Amino acid sequence: MKKTMTFSVVAASVALALAAPVALAAKVPAGVQLDAKQELVRNNGSEAESLDPALAESVGANNIARDLFEGLTATDADGKVVPGVAESWKQTDATTWVFKLRKNAKWSDGTAVTADDFVYGIRRFLDPKTASPYATTYGIFLVNGQEVAEGKKPVTEVGVKAIDKYTLELKTPYPVAFMPELVSNTQLGPAPKAAIEKYGKDWTKPGKLVGNGAFMLKDWLVNSKLVIEKNQNYWDKANVQLTKVTYLPVEDGFADVKLFQSGENDWVYQLPPGTYEKYKAELPKDIRNAPMLGLRYYSFNVKDPLLKDVRVRKALSMVIDRDILSSKITADGQVPAYSAIVRGTAGADVTTYDWAKWPMAQRVAEAKKLLAAAGVQPGTKIKFTYNTSEYHKKMAIFAASEWKSKLGLNTDMENMEFKVLLKKRHDGDYQIARNGWVADYNDATSFLALIQCGNDQNDNGNCNPKADELIKQGNLSKDPAKRKQLLTQATKMIMDDYPMLPLLQYTVPRLVKSYVGGYSTKNPMDRYRNKDLYIIKH
Amino acid sequence: MLRSKQKAAAEAIAANVSALPVDGRSPWRDARERFLRNKAAVVSLVILALITLACIFGPMLLSHSYEDTDWEAMSLAPTMLNGHYFGTDELGRDLLVRCLIGGRISLMVGLLATIASVTIGIVWGATAGFLGGKVDTLMMRIVDMMYAVPYLLIAILMVTLLGREFYLVVLTITVFSWMDMARVVRGQTLSIKSKEYIEAARAIGVSTSSIIFRHVVPNLLGIVVIYTTVTVPGVILTESVLSFLGLGVQEPMTSWGVLIEDGTGVMETTPWILLFPAAMLSITLYCANYIGDGMRDALDPKDR
Amino acid sequence: MWSYAFRRVLMTIPTLLLVITVCYLMLHATPGGPFDSERKISAAVLANLQAKYHLDLPLWQQYLYYLKSLLQGDLGASFRYADWSVNDLVANALPVSLAIGGGSLLLSVFIGVGLGIIAALRQNSIVDYLVMLIGNLGSAFPSFIIGPVLIMIFAIWLKVSPAGGWNDFQISYMVLPMALLTFINISTIGRVMRGSLIEVLNSNFIRTAKAKGLPMSTIVFRHSLKPALMPVVSVLGPLAISSITSAVVTESVFSLPGLGKLIVNGAANRDYTLVLGLVVLVTVVAVVLNLLVDLAYALLDPKIRY
Question: Which residues of C touch A437 (CB under 8 A)?
């Protein structure tokens, strides 16, 4: 993400509308009988690196952070923005947002959550001494946020202000239409100043951690389990059903499923590759699978002598049969992708290639022509780099086989450790490399980062200045429809440069016990607060 | 029955041991006979030879290649019809050929790493044990140090740093497989050293090197053979653990460890993908163990 | 003997220093750093993080810095587990590994020695072959097959054991992992015991005993066991070290919070401080165990003098 990105303002009249404080989460549908024991065991895929919301980086750590802490807003099980500590908000001008905090929001120690706690939390998040990995990711949306994170300005300069005890003002350097969704991230939430100053680095330990979320920390045994219990001081505790949730850090997919089958786990984080069809048939009530805002793709290094020719990149992309890949190889409901932007993303339409609809024979013929025109002979070697994983291996062997059988190109597969791949990718020391991305917030710009000129997330080294200009124009546009049209057009232009080979849109195939209520398959960000879940009588 | 007969035979030999002519049968013939007495070892030797031959020549005789994928025949159950006698893996590659090719790699790793580590171990252990004193202390501290280093950590770092070429995998395994042998050999040497005949040899001025090679090393043979045969399966297993950790040989090349690791994920849906390589590996390792026991019995210096 | 033990403990210090240095250099030479992740962090954030963990200093200064805090008993802060010090993490994982690894080793010694004795006494019989068939299970199947099979049988079908996890030393959670490690260990102990007992039984003094008409049980338990155990003792050190510190497969299959997984994950995450802290711990544990084995050896064989 770059600071040069700007965002449109939604038409002032629309933006001034208040968010309705009704339709809160965790409502149990009529007719559903709750179980007497409201306890859930949920595998989180790996151990949280930190419970400090400013330091949480991984998906797992953020899951827990959203239970222990609550930002100005939150997202419900369907991924919709709902009020959090703020009961209402409005955009008073193009770059100013005012949030009205509810007066009954309390920390778990019983003290009130005030606007000052948010000011402290956001300043602390951006403070270089805190060294939050997300500091610039979200910092760029606040006035002076980037400068503060870089240590060029004092933390007091950041665009956050407590108007009074229960009113908070956020200033953005340019219009940021999706601010209400952005502040659902607990990085931009409040922090318990008293506890942090009292305990220092140890403040996130059981017995010391003070939070304002629906749950509070009970126990944390690293690599074993993390237990949270219902927070009796939470403002909306009447709508919190679960009394106790145990997060497991199980990484091994096989172990995860076995714990599920033996009844020690209610929630398999992600099914191991090759098992989705089996469990779909065996446990039809427990299987849950939904597309999310994530993309599996391969990066082309456009500076590579062979790949610097766009015709070669195009040919390599054309011959990969995404339908077979999705239906037979991964076989877990993932959706074929032909664009950097996936379905369900706000702010741009999904683009595609003309050839995506062609029969494969025609695609192969065209690809061969392109290769011939580029002077690439059959038998040419290409080098493909991926990191050790059953899933990536299967996809890689498939791709290599497609290139070999359809174009006569030989692929040298280089399997390496994840950190080595990251290093090579970031350094541009590769030819074709496995890649993947999950959006931080639901907007097209989160995906455009992958292909924009000079962006940190752009591993392929491609730059289309004309498209970049369109993105800039779009972000400055006052009209959301216009912005959408410009961003879509820019995406199409960049994708025609073939800087990447889009393969599949992520889905999250998992097992969740049928008696776990409140789980929705319409949540594109795969964020489930335990506040929204409950145990049905079984 | 069998046992009592053998016991009787053993006792008879024991009773007559002093009556036997000193220049009787050659020790090697003795050893062979004792080996042949262990039926499990003999059967194992035959099976292992067959597996080895199959791994060497099998892939040349079969029509399928180990790397060609077939999207129409993925995870195919074993069948006689189209030559997929072991079925196919998740990517439609013939499992029989892959098992044989994988066997080549695993057996080669086992052979090379064992030779290397056994040689290092014997030389190291016998030298340390016999010379004793400061040299022994220093050499054994180095062994301790090697144990002290978490070998998985170094293995991971070595593979990450050096790469996954076949010989580098062998090297990585060897580096951490020779110490057992060194320790055992040293222990045995220490106890042999304090035997009367060594003291006698020393007293009459036999040189150190000839004491080591004439008297110590031959007496080590039993323990060395046991340990070698523990090393072979150990080394092959280490290769499979490296594969489990994602540090195995590169696709599309494979090894039994890699095949088994692939198979465990789908053991409930398509069990043959696990079963065949696991069976080949286990049979091989069992054979190696039985042969080891048989060799040990055969070479036991006291069993004359 | 005590001065020998003391000298051995003193020797730990140069050992430790060398091991730390080698691991330190290898870790830092390995491509990729603790802050490389799928989302590339911006240069500014990277600078903040490096300053926080002193990675902005030259390598030799970082090294001296590390040694200095090590002398004060501080293993530093973990990169991967930002809320925890390495001391905390090691202190949490060590008891788990000691319980599982140590317990299974104890069990393995009894079972392995027992199997070895049975097999040796019935050498070359069907009993011998069968005992070794069971005994060798652990060295014929990779642990990542035995573990899942144990889970399928005992946790899924029979439902008599949890499928994994750890619950404060509750014995039911320890049974399967200990069983797995025991399978691995008895294959070594059983074979070594069988071989060495056969050898002892064939030695002159036992023949004399037999000739004197002593009963077999007396011969085995009074006269043969002690010398036959010596090779077993010499393999216990390495077995103990690997059971306690490198049971990474067992720990991942049964989701245990032990040392092995911490080391492997630490290396994968380039968690420099955590890995070095574990190296320090493993080194000390290994030196102590090896020393114990050497002392036991001396007790068993009076001819060995230190």
Answer: 38
Please name the chains neighbouring C, where neighbouring means 3+ C-beta pairs under 8 angstroms. A, B
Q: What angle do CA A456, A459, A463 make, to 5 degrees?
A: 85
Which of C15, C139, C193, C299 to probe by mutation at the B interface, max B CB count within 10 Å?
A: C139
Do domains A9-246+509-535 and A291-507 share one topology? The answer is no
Element (H, E) at C296: helix C272-300
Cα distance between residue C67 and residue C79, in whole Å = 17
pLDDT in tens, B270-301: 888 889 999 999 999 889 888 887 887 787 65
Query: Is the separation of the CB atoms in A226 and A64 below 8 Å?
Result: yes
pLDDT in tens, A460-518: 999 999 999 999 888 887 788 898 999 999 999 999 999 999 999 999 899 999 999 99
pLDDT tens digits, C169-181: 999 999 999 999 9
Note the CATH architecture for domain A9-246+509-535: Alpha-Beta Complex (3.90)
Domains of chain A, by residue range, sit at 9-246+509-535, 291-507
pLDDT of B26 reads 62
For chain A positions 440-469, those within 8 Å of chain C (CB to CB) are: 440, 456-457, 459
Give the 3-state secondary structure of residue A98: strand
> What's the mean per-residue pLDDT of chain A?
90
Interface confidence, given as ipTM, is 0.89
Which residues are CB-contacts of C25 (< 8 A; sequence separation ≥ 6)? none
> Domain spanning A291-507: which CATH class is it, in words?
alpha beta
Q: How far is A5 from C189, CA to CA, in rounded Å?
A: 66
Q: What helix, strand, coil percent values describe chain C, rounded to 5?
A: 75, 0, 25
Instruction: Write the CA distances from A18 to A7, A92, A159, A162, B69, integer angstroms.
Output: 20, 11, 22, 20, 58
Query: What is the per-residue pLDDT across A50-74, written as a single tens digit (0 to 9) for each?
Result: 999 999 988 999 999 999 999 999 9
